[in-house]
Amino acid sequence: MPQLQDLLDEWITVGWQGRPHEGLRHPMMARAALTPNEMWGALVGACGYVPVPLTGRDYVELLPVRWHRVTDRGIRIDHRTYDHPVLGACRGRSSGVTARQGRWKTTYTAARRGCACPAGSSPSRGSTATT
User: Fold this and answer.
1) What is the distance, to the nearest Å, from the Cα of residue 58 to the centroid of all Cα atoms in its chain?
2) pTM
3) Following DSSP, what letter does each residue of 6-20 receive, concatenated?
């Protein structure tokens, strides 16, 4: 699967972003189709750019995702078990996401792993357990 992701990333960077698209037209040059990068540059030039700082929740949303069951012992990932008191509300319960067979959405980094229990499923909305 990582090879497929690498192939997609390369295609987006080299193929899609560098190719003009009929739906991308500069308001002052309506005849010329622009690439996504050219359109972004034109819009930044016309409207400006306002950097918006990311919140802690934004960083969690940008992390890679896996789907796991929360058992009495916690979450099992790569032969390790991760547990935290906030998982108590999720233990042995379905997440309600039928497309994922009731598993819970978990996020992780190489150094930390966490479980984000969806709103309404944990004592505090969007609670996150990390280990």
Assistant:
1) 9
2) 0.49
3) HHHHHIIIIIITTS-
